[in-house]
Amino acid sequence: MHPFLQNDFHIKWSTLTPDHIEADISKALDEAKAAVDAVANQSAPLTYENTVAALDLGLETLNRAWGLVSHLDSVANSPELRAAHNKMLPKVSEFFAGIPLNETLWKTLKAYGEQSETEALSPTKHRYIAETLADFREAGADLPPEQKKRAGEIQSELAELTQKYSENCLDATNAWDKIVTDKGQLSGLPKSALDAARQSAEQKGQEGWRFTLQAPSYMPLMTYADSDLLREEVWRAYAAIGREGEHDNRELVRRILDLRHEFAQLVGQENFADHVTERRMAASGQAALRFGEDIFDKVRHQFEAEAEQLRVFKAKFNSPHSTPNSPLLEPWEAGYWAEKQRKANYDFDEEALRPYFPIHRVISGMYEIAQKIFGLRIEERDSASHIPDPASRIPHPVSHTLDHSSPITHHSSLDAVETWHPEVKFYDLFDAETGEQLGAFYADWHPRESKRGGAWMNYLLTGERDPAKQRSPHLGLICGNLTPAVGDQPALLTHREVETIFHEFGHLLHHLCGEVEVKSLNGVNVPWDFVELPSQIMENWCWERESLDLFARHHETGEPIPPALFDRMLAARNYMKASANARQLAFGKMDLELHINWPLSAKEDLDTFVENVLRGYSPEYKTQPKSNVFNFSHLFSSPTGYAAGYYSYKWAEVLDADAFTRFQKEGILNPATGRDFRATILAKGNSEDPAKLFKDFMHRAPDPDALLRRDGLLPT
Length: 716
Known about the structure:
Blueprint lengths: L20 H20 L11 H24 L3 H20 L4 H11 L9 H17 L5 H31 L1 E4 L10 H13 L5 E4 L2 H10 L3 H12 L10 H17 L5 H6 L7 H34 L15 H13 L12 H16 L1 E6 L1 E2 L24 E3 L5 E2 L6 E7 L5 E8 L11 E6 L12 E6 L15 H18 L20 H6 L6 H4 L14 H9 L5 H21 L8 H8 L19 H4 L10 H20 L4 H12 L7 H9 L7 H5 L6
Parallel strand pairs: 3-5, 4-6, 8-10
Antiparallel strand pairs: 1-2, 3-7, 7-8, 9-10
């Protein structure tokens, strides 16, 4: 039996053990190689079915199997799994890198693409042929043999290096913790943070309060702890991720940048940023850079004013009767004093919102919104896990089931759907009008030592949407590292964590609502500066009274957010918004500058290079923070990922701010508007040009100032 090669829609996770990985992936590789050879050596008259479609089909098993291995590496990491994954990674990477470099295959595909028959195909299939040929050329298909060989070597080495980078970030994060036994050192921390830290210590068999570098632990401490010494210690530990000892990423990053630049030049591009952006909406690295710089120019004055106001606030707070000055802050002070200033200006503390965001209500409300506006129905299935947690001796947090007031239908069955961890839930998704099942998904929301940080969505299976075949559902997943439950109390989220859930759900809907006949053009397989539109637009429903009332209910009383608290929340929404924009723009600029200017930038210390290109993009501090380039997983945890593409978040944020204005005009829960968004954006995937899809929904081109108006940085 080859468990990783089974085609079960309900995956049997308990059978996917490390000892099967080598045999299963080797078999899948052999089958995929045979499929590639069959297409490459096609002797029959060339058709869509025996060329591009046959290639797609021939790679499905390997793609699915390796996707499962990679997913488990992210959510159930163990020494055995890591070893098995890393043993096969070079072979899998070499195979995929070699596909576009296969001369015989390339001749066959190119010959078919030049046939007149292709013009008679559906627009979607015609687009797929064009996209496939462009993908091959972008990967080096037209290179001479020696250069092709080198291109394949580069891609294989990048896969190994970026995997090691990711492992170093995970291991360095897990290697650090802080046990505090004197509660007096924890002054200022809210009860939610103290309870979580106490539970974390108990789970480790220790007395006191335990803090880690995972976001639910790190962020409250940096925001609320009165102790400068404690915040400094934790800040320095976080800043050291990827910089020290056995988890040092510094040389890895330089090598990754070397290889990316070499590859870009091999395929005829001046730099890696141009290589990445050529077929995205930005079209070039410089255009993406100008986009970010144009926004920064519009917010620079307000950003500088916000930084000065924060310094003055601290000075006045500490010496209210003296002549105020504005001495520089330390970087570990910024979040703390920003929170105090926000509270002083707006009488608003985000912790006051936590009781209104129990995770089960947030999720059920989100699904209700999806039903109202997109015409989707979501049913929870019984689920169970028989897989031991690799982090093992840590007991699982209390699992809270949905209460009777939840609008989610809970579908019980004798055969529970297997999951990879007891906390993971499984849901079916249907068209509410027709009853047709569109897809299903897993949801895994809380941190574990065996799970990488951050939040993400991924797809496990793309169903059939070809009119000539029987339709079948899509399968996906969403993961996060949100505040866990404490004791008998449900997981109570921050408002930012609520936005995270909605964000990843938007990505998921993009996959599950796909109606594209070609699987490889479905869902999130769009240019990356468009991929964040469905995710980021969903965050808007976390700010509207009408939608919040569907799920923001006190976990004990069921009462909605009081009007006065809601008003203060809205008033504080755009607090230091210019600073928030500057921070994201700085990440995007750092990313682009590294990939545009390498290897010129290689002559410098990377921290120095980043400091120089980002001068003016961050406040001046007493202690100048070093760059996050050695722990910035978005850029260096995969061969490409968001490399030279981090600007996409801000690019898509402009699109989402603009697109949501239509909901605001027509009703934020208007089903007609929602169905139109589903039909023109979610369902279409990459079947049409993204600029056209946006115009189909808005009936005009994007408004570049929409984001700044929403952020209160331009007049409405």
